[in-house]
Amino acid sequence: MSDLLVIQELLDFLGKSPTPFHAVQQVTEQLLKAGYVRLDEKQSWQLAPEGKYFTTRNDSSLIAFHTGRHDPTEAGIRMMGAHTDSPALKVKPSPVTINKGYLQLAVEVYGGVLLNPWFDRDLSLAGRVSYKTNDGILKNALIDFRTPIAIIPSLAIHLDRTQNESKKINPQTDLPPILAQVSNSENFSFESLLKDQINDDALAEVLDWELFFYDTQLPAEVGLNKEFIASARLDNLLSCFIGLQSFINSDASQPALIVFNDHEEVGSASASGADGPFLKQVLERWIGDSAETFVQTISRSLMISVDNAHGVHPNFASWHEPDHQPILNSGPVIKINANQRYASNSTSQALFRHICQQVNVPVQVFVVRSDLACGSTIGPITATNLGVNTVDVGVATFAMHSIRETAGAKDPLLLLKALQHFFNSSSISA
After folding, report:
1. What is the pTM assigned to this prediction?
2. Distance of alpha carbon 282 from alpha carbon 288, whole angstroms
3. Could you give the domains of the chain?
């Protein structure tokens, strides 16, 4: 696949994945096309040597693996992890309000959202709807309105001239998007609106939903020389897409796995999150539940946790540690934290550096300023739950957790090159 095609397909993937459910749907389609067999967690698994498999949980998390030509107990497993969720505004269970003749939906903040950029954007709505059919069968459907159906207007500067000096946002009162003008006596049904989005003639009743607002502006190449990419959800769907491409385009000779967890942005504590049992249960079904076999395999394995890193912003460089300032388009970033907010250690860092050296991929390092708090990833959680040697890396990014983030156009290609070599590598232990 050419470099230009990789970037274009990345942008397409981002645009078609407004929610974790849609992202997993996109990944599923690509895995099936590449010959991977879907496994049902409720059924017995019969795994074959050199087999290619995947399974999903909650429609929002996914694990794919190929068994390879070697015994994982001897060869270890090459693991790459990322997350499917991004900070967003999530629709509440009873959301409809009519105020001053405007139809609005109540929302709650999902994750560490940078709220200011959500104002004055063309918003749409997407997610999963659960419903009952005429026969009493419960089903789920993914919906996406696609077109702009809502907006959160700013307050005019004339009414509050302090906004440019200090703007405090109240998530309860300031964020409900406006969808329409209606009469106060009009009986609006949100459930009927959702029914119109579901293509099922047998639909009888909408029972529940998990819906998120998102910006309809399409992902794009930006810059005089198109050296940047700008999009919603670069954190962390960029990592999911590049991890997927490196995985399905590897030679599949080695035991290898990718895991894309939901709920990282809210702590990972769920059945489908990294702090849940999903990955360990899949590994036990693959390599067996013998404690000795499991520990032998994990001790020879390596997890590369891939999540975006903070690129140094030229207007705000003082917010970075002086000697650890990642530059966009300068290669993947190893993320290090003394308090284990990242799982990187000298051994796993050296292994990743060695992998990158073998394919001429430059490496950068990020350490947060000592007087600032540090974010985290699925890396420390996975390392804690499995005992697997782990390194946290990522692509340098501007405006992380904004409604629109920016990354370098070269970095996804460099990360792809490193990860594909990792999946093909015959040795992953020090």
Report:
1. 0.96
2. 10
3. 3-86+232-424 (3.40.630.10), 88-215 (2.30.250.10)
